[in-house]
Amino acid sequence: MRQNRHFCPKWSWWIRAGERAVLGLELGHIIGAAGPGVGPAERNGLKCILGHLNAGSGMVEAMREASLCLPVEAWSLLQAGEHTGKFGEAMCDVGELLRQQEARRRAFFGQMWYPAMVGLVGIGVMAIILFWVVPQMRELSESMGLGDNLPWLTEHIGQLYGGIFSGIITLLLLGLAGFSLIRLIGKRSAKWGYLEEVIAGRFPVAGSVFRHVREARLLRQLGTLLQAGTPIPRALEMVAASSSNRWEQEELTRFRSSLLMGMGFSVSLRACPLFDEEGIPLLEVGQESGKLESFMLRIAAGREEEVAWAIAQITRLVEPLFLFVLSGAIGGMVLAYLLPMVRLLEQAGGAF
Q: Span of the secretion signal (predicted)?
């Protein structure tokens, strides 16, 4: 009954299904009637969920068994909804979360298409110079009886650029493979999970984005669970169980243990390295005023706005930086193209 292929219905299905659940319709009937805009893979996945429900599984458990692919925040929303009996509202929240992610993804690709097109044109120009212009210059030199010895830059421009390009690609692939390996091992080892935190923090902008994304995710999960009526220790336990980083799980578990031992929310919070010191006073005020979930969601929204702003600034810097590098590369190619012409003119003038 388990579906091996991962699937995820569109955000519109989640909102439509959630609204029907709020109106009192049975979840089994809602899932069985997939509705318009659902592809074959999604239909098979929903049938698999329905099969697990009929077998007696809970809703979240059935979705996991059917290989439903959702972000961590969405699973927390669904768990909170199932725990408090507000699964319809949770499905609507998941739909809104997926809609926002899709909007951010479209905005990112919309900003990157122009640099990508410029890069393709630049690579095309470089390929023409390397594979057509330089051989033509060599043939012209031979036909004039001036030998086939071209200037060093013209002769080795292909190897030079090829070596630089290969080196950059190799470094990127090695860095990506190394970071992916650390993340994979970090799911089982707290030390490697902490190593991921240290490595990400070494990068000025990317490290800040990494920490803000994590803090926004944790605060939104906790705020959503608390808003649904879940006690703080239980909410910390659920968030820790949904985390894919062993170090993060241990820190949340240590936070929960401190609360259960009566150390107080403020002391336990300040001892947890997962939260930025800037937002801790606000969380303390929220705890004292009885509006902790509201402050958590507010800080999470602020962190998400900071992340969106940082990503927008990075994408804006990519275009001029890419154009600068591409201009330098094409300038070198043009220089390599002009050098043999100057030599040919000098040698032709000396022949007369």
A: none
